[in-house]
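Note to self: user wants both folds in one dump. Writing first protein now.
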Amino acid sequence: MRILVVEDDQNLNRQLTDTLKEAGYVVDQAFNGEEGHYLGECEPYDAVVLDIGLPEMDGITVLEKWREAGKKMPVLILTARDRWSDKVAGIDAGADDYVTKPFHMEEVQARLRALIRRAAGHATSEISCGPVRLDTKSSKVTVEGSTLKLTSHEFRLLSYLMHHMGQVVSRTELVEHMYDQDFDRDSNTIEVFVGRLRKKMGVDMIETVRGLGYRIQPPSNG
């Protein structure tokens, strides 16, 4: 899952980025509204953390422009403690949730997990597909009760497919949501990770849709 953090406070931006990376997300950073707006327009994100008080273009304007352009990614806004009007303006502009400064990093993570899974149509922190269970809170995957040992990239790939269960996901889409802007998108690493996942899972659930991409769904005999 790929997250954009738009926050002009260098230290807070770094803390958010480091925390989210440790949680397994791919994170892009922006330090002003202009840069944040540009990245949100050009790159596909699973969620955005957006500060309201940004230089060059304020967060409300950034959000309004995204929504006017048809961008539907979930947006979590950061607001000042005593500015209730910012919360109202943010929600009215199209924000999906908000966190008030100062905040605990755990709260940001929990709210992002909720926004991402709701956007994919999942109501709880556990996503199930046949014998496979993915816990978005603990980043734990089990198959018929046995825990799988996955690398961070294998987990990101499986998580994205599970969030979009039953849908055909292209290789390009997987690359865009698993890696940052600088990744070599012509490499064949997606195919390698799919092969590893199939072996580790031991169940025939990741289907190759020729010429289109991959789809995960419960095995036909399940």
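First done. Writing the second protein, which came from a different request thread.
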Amino acid sequence: MIFKILLILLFTLFSRLGVGADKPTIRIGVLASGTLAWELAAIKNANGLDNAGFNLETVAIANQQAGKVALQAGSVDMIVSDWIWVSSMRAQGNDYTFYPYSASAGGLLVPADSGINSLADLQGKKLGIAGGELDKNWSLLQALGLQQGLDLNESLEKVYGAPPLLNQQLSSRRIDALLTYWQFAARLEAQGYRQLMSGEDIIRALGISETVPSLGYVFKQSWADQHETALQAFLQTAQTAKDTLCDSDAAWQQVMKLAETPDTAIQTQLKRRYCQGRVKQWGAAEQTAAGKIYQLLHRLSDNKLTGKTAQLQPGTFWSAH
């Protein structure tokens, strides 16, 4: 709790740094437990706003849904979210758009001594699922199961819950396997749990070879058009901060207090998975692959995840003019 209080104070201080009337202000919603907070702290530690072409105002948000509400209400200019939501909002006439932030996509984990070594072994077991019934990785895992002749939705017991609670349930053997977000998967890996399959592995097994970022910066196209220079400057500053965290042990240690763990093995695994999620390629091939993933999800979720539109909406992915 004390780290979260310190984080809020940091955000308040950070949001006031370098404020000047001659520079546009970008208001960004930030989860206290999210990795974006790490990058913003790295920017502050490196005095990265001193000569930036923008001011930055951070707004603490409780969860991803709260971030979406804040963006729609105009309380923030930008959040980190997924392109599936962006496409569904565009289908409703909104002009939100997406720019990649991270390709980390979580994974399927089991205890080190588990006899589960394949999807077929999950049948009859209890599977914890972070993100709920409409979690993207769960939908894709079901697609892979059907490809192998397995109806995972019917052949196993599903347990939904918050990621920290599910980690505890796996540790106490109340569930047999866990499909969760990458940060929580990394913590388990550091404790000796075995990753059976990553989110990226699931997508590749479905025949899609490109790495498609799962999360990105989401903002209105109209806002981006009005603030393109500032937006480009922010994206470059954020990328520099991400690279600094991956290339500098000192910079990484400075932000690890935000991860709320003194365990060096966990810190090391968090860094490994975080840096693996850096977006190295983002172009036509990756965006076409995203369209294929969207169609898979549309068929599997009975439109609950994607909405009624069968195709990824034009403009979902932002490109500078």
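Dump finished. Worth passing along: Confidence is low (pLDDT under 50) at residues 1-10, 12-20.
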